[in-house]
Give the backbone structure.
Amino acid sequence: MTESAPIRKANPKDILIQSVFLVVVVVLIVSAVESARTNLNAMGISSGFGFLDRSTGWSYSFSLVERSIDDPYRWTLFVGFLNTLFLGVVSIILATLLGFAVGAARDARNFALEGAAMVFVQIFRNIPLILQLVFWYAILIHMPGPRQAMSLLDMAFLSNRGFYAPTLTLPPLASLTAFAFAIGSAFVAAKVVQSRFTKRLLIWLLANILLLAVLLLFSSTGDTAVFSVPALKGLRFTGGVTIPVELVAMIISIVLYGAAYIAEVVKGGLRAVPKGLIEAGRSLGLSERAIWFKITMPMALRSIIPPLGNQWIFLMKATTIGVAIGFSDLFMIVSTSITQSGQTLELIGVLMAAFLLINFSLAQMINLLNSRLQLVTN
């Protein structure tokens, strides 16, 4: 048994210093708030959050929910918050997947594969993100129009107006079922790749089949098709889901930029795995694939997760560059709201609180994941 560390008694001098420092900070904050309120009143600008109930009177390019120009500021800010959260989550997921693939290639023994991965990292890591965003946006807005749009299997289309993709037209419960089916299928596929077909996997497979049966049951009721595929009608596409060029440019630039940094994190984690463990796996007769999934990657993740979390937080904050091309994220919504309402301090406070909430939640999730991956020592 290990003896617990002795509890350090609080020093009265330290308590006094900390208390004085806390009082000084509070006094400075209160003084700044009162000074700002006095100056605003002198200029005839009312302070407070009463403006949130007023109608904005202006619109924006993208929204995940219904909106109109008559929406109050509180709903418009919420729409911007959802747009930022959506863009950040999608970019983080795609950048992580691409970063792991490129990072694994950076550690490969194949010279051509390693060289291609190195070129990818050097290009997208060393070009400023805002420059990459402007570059991809310029390419997208100069794409052909809807009538000459690039086609992918006649189901998805890319033009200068955006990306048109198929979408589900199922009820919310059926859509959740389809999402659960996709997650279950990915889990089963991952286990099959690892050659770990166990009784638990069999249960997962049966549950996945049950989810598929429920999904087919939902899709067989009614006359509405399960999928809505975009189709050209005149000068525009109808059906499916439309992703505006601003969002496409944002996702491409953030994913490529973030993947370059994540690839270096993954490469460092893979090279931190002791060579003795890999040699031990080979001496036991394990295949290279088994060594990768059972030894290399589990050990590397313990080194990868902490810096990877920092990259996730950075990518979430990188969504603010969308204001350069007119993407309606929270930063652009707040900037426009400041111009229209004049409530600068309140809106800046809302912006800070929103990003604090997002990044703090993300940091807590990373800390939880990191604690679960750490080795347990007695």
DSSP finds eleven helices and eight strands in the chain. The mean pLDDT is 80.
